[in-house]
Amino acid sequence: MPLAHLAHLPRSSWLRKPGHHRWLEDEGDRLLAFARAARMPGGFGSLDGFGRLPADAVPDTTFSARMTHCFALAHLLGLPGYADLADHGLAALAGPLRDAEHGGWFSSAAREGSKGCYVHAFVCLAASSAYVAERPGAQALLEQAAAVYQQHFWADAEGAFRESFARDWQSEEPYRGANSNMHSVEACLALAAALSQPVWLDRALAVAQRVVHERPGEGVNEHFDLHWQPLPDYNRDAPDHPFRPYGLTPGHAFEWARLLLELEAARKSAGLDAPPWLFEDAPALFRYGVTRGWAVDGLPGVVYTVNEAGAPIVRERLHWTLAEACAAAATLLQRCGDAQYEQWYQTFWGFIDQHLIDRVHGSWHHELDPANQPAGRLWPGKADLYHAYQATLIPRLPLGLSLARWAQGH
């Protein structure tokens, strides 16, 4: 197992342990096997806690794209049976989930609602991974997705991505979101790697500077108006919104920390300038996630949201926050070798092992209540493979490579 990129770490680091890598591989395989059941006509649906598709399940575009991305990675890693699932997802994204009249993608097979940046970011991610995996139809989908993403969502004057539009693109939501822009950075990294187009790395850098560079140690403002002025009271009456909650989201601080380091490494690999703040801001973001998110209500786990003063608002623990905490700790550990990140990496995986991994019904519990018991108030069921599966891959990934390019050569 080639671990040359980890030579600076002590031999005791889990990132250097073949046994830990085997554990990550086994856990990833277990997650993939559970997710196969999400396949349905027209895409992938949301599984319940037992791994079953509800009778009223409808293909969801975000989850279909995430599944396609993960199954393409599994195929690239040499796991039989996942190419067909990736192709099924591609067919859904190129067919019933796509708006053949106006272009772009619906949020679900129900063809209702606006056309959001968040959804389109994941379509770009899925198409990028499937393209690297050389799946039929992936190149055409990638070209379509990149064109729509650039034409309708990228705002060059703002150095960021717009949020959402009506189906015909004629009216725009008067809102800018950090969450959609964060996943846009991930999409830009994937597009740059798949298409060999460094311009996407420039866009990712502009977004990072716009959204997080101003206050990395104070948490990430999540909601803005069209002029990028913060909206601190946004969704005060809906504090547990699954995508736009009121307050600050410590889990996003972890996610941003990882993305900044991946962007730094990708820009260096491409021969581009990498501003020092990309590295300098990452530890500050991680520190915010730990100090404001971890065990702030007296029990281990990362709370969903906090206020500006750091007091918990929504105390439920969502599985993706721990997945991203693990990935961020691994990335920081690989980048600078500081022992604190080793300690946190092991702590986070210990929590996941004890509280989130469901060894009876499969996958991970997607939500725990404030007492760390399985719950489903915010996120019922087990719809999302993406965060947990990537958490089993990123610790094995050398900085500077996209997941798809790494899996291709692994």
TrEMBL record:
Organism per entry: Pseudomonas typographi
Protein keywords: Isomerase
Assigned protein family: Belongs to the N-acylglucosamine 2-epimerase family.
Chain segments annotated as transmembrane: none
Identification of the protein by name: AGE family epimerase/isomerase
